[in-house]
Each structure stands twice: as C-alpha cells, then as structure tokens.
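Page 47, continued from p. 46.
Same chain as before, 124 aa.
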Amino acid sequence: QVQLVESGGGLVQAGGSLRLSCATSARADYTMAWFRQAPGHEREFVAAIRWSATSTYYADSVKGRFTISRDNAKNMVYLQMNSLKPEDTAVYYCAAEFSLRTTILSRPTDFRSWGRGTQVTVSS
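Result:
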C-alpha cells in the first residue's frame, strides 16, 4: 500500500513562490504526479514525473512557472511553484501509480494512490 503525505501549502501573495513536498512510500519506478482541485471545480492535472527525473510533463496553465522533481533516495516528490496567480488557489494532491505503459498519466483515474492534500491560497 502506497502512502502519500503532502506538506508545504500556505497563503502567499500573487507573484510569490511556494514549494510543496510529498513524502511517499512508492518505489522509484512509480510515476508521481500533482493534481489540484478548487471549490466547485473538477480535479485537474498539474504535473507528472516518471522514473527518469528528466521525464516531466505539465499542464499548459503552469508551464514555465511550476517545476516537479523527485529525490528517490529520500522518497520525496516536490512541486516548486513560482509566479503564483490567484487562479492557482486550490487543494493540491500528490498521486502515485505504477504502469508498464509509456503513455503519459495525466487523468485522476490513472492514479490509485492519493495523499490527503494541502491547501494553497494565492491572494491578489
């Protein structure tokens, strides 16, 4: 059973930065991802990282601003968020899944393991 615990959320001003962390028991060959969900909205894909740290994927809305990374030795996944906008306000979730497929995992249904979420609030 994969366990995931997010941390690092908080309140920041627009244009500021925040780094989210996810402590995971998932093996290094799992695909890890970040999703977010705002009130009244569906959960949406933010970023994913595969077994290779250089294989990363981002939603168009965060490209150039967010960076996903992982430290397999420490069993940690990170999401560095820069140039934050009020539209980024949401609960951010860490997710993990193992797949032999080479296709990009970017749907909530692609993942079976989820953290509890951490709140990110960006004020104008």
